[in-house]
UniProtKB/TrEMBL annotation:
InterPro entries: Acyl_CoA_acyltransferase (IPR016181), GNAT_dom (IPR000182), N-term/lysine_N-AcTrnsfr (IPR051556). Keywords: Acyltransferase, Transferase. CDD domains: NAT_SF. This is N-acetyltransferase domain-containing protein. It comes from the Bacteria. It comes from Candidatus Woesebacteria bacterium RIFCSPHIGHO2_01_FULL_40_22. The keyword Heme does not apply. SUPFAM superfamilies: Acyl-CoA N-acyltransferases (Nat). Gene3D superfamilies: 3.40.630.30. Pfam families: Acetyltransf_1. Residues 3-154 form the N-acetyltransferase domain. GO terms for molecular function: acyltransferase activity, transferring groups other than amino-acyl groups.
């Protein structure tokens, strides 16, 4: 398996869009409030373009035999009431047919390296309560539970 992880460039925004759309498709079973059109909306497109160009956060793309198979999107997270400097993993995804092959770990390692370059002291990620596969992945990569997010329907 020949996997290479590269920093996204401006022209990679559509690749990120397609990879993130797969995350949306996967996540809809955990969140019926997801706007499934968002990846192709003007706001979504602006997000991908800003992410790919480096104007907003950092993005790494994993390629298997020159085909994009995964990505990780990162941003500085400001918890004004906390002492640590955080980097948030806004989203991460690996194509379903390429999961459990170490690609997610490679992306996570790149995230850790970039976070350290930013002088961050913690990585932050939010996972859906019922997404046990994602929670297990994060725990295997050194994350621990630090809070619970909650919603209330109005």
């Amino acid at each position: 398996m020949n996997v290479i992880v590269k920093t996204a460039k401006s022209g990679d925004w559509e690749t990120i869009q397609k990879l993130n759309n797969q995350v949306f498709i996967n996540d809809q079973e955990h969140d019926n409030d997801l706007d499934m059109n968002w990846p192709f909306s003007p706001k979504g497109i602006k997000y991908y373009k800003d992410l790919a160009s480096g104007k907003y956060g950092k993005c790494f793309i994993a390629y298997l035999d020159n085909q994009p198979v995964g990505y990780i999107a990162l941003a500085i997270k400001d918890f004004g009431y906390r002492k640590s400097k955080y980097i948030e993993i806004e989203n991460i995804g690996v194509n379903p047919q390429h999961r459990s092959k170490g690609i997610g770990k490679m992306l996570m390692d790149e995230a850790v390296g970039w976070a350290k370059e930013q002088k961050a002291t913690k990585l932050y990620v939010s996972a859906y309560w019922g997404n046990e596969r994602a929670i297990d992945f994060y725990k295997k990569n050194g994350f621990y539970e630090s809070g619970v997010e909650m919603d209330k329907r109005l």
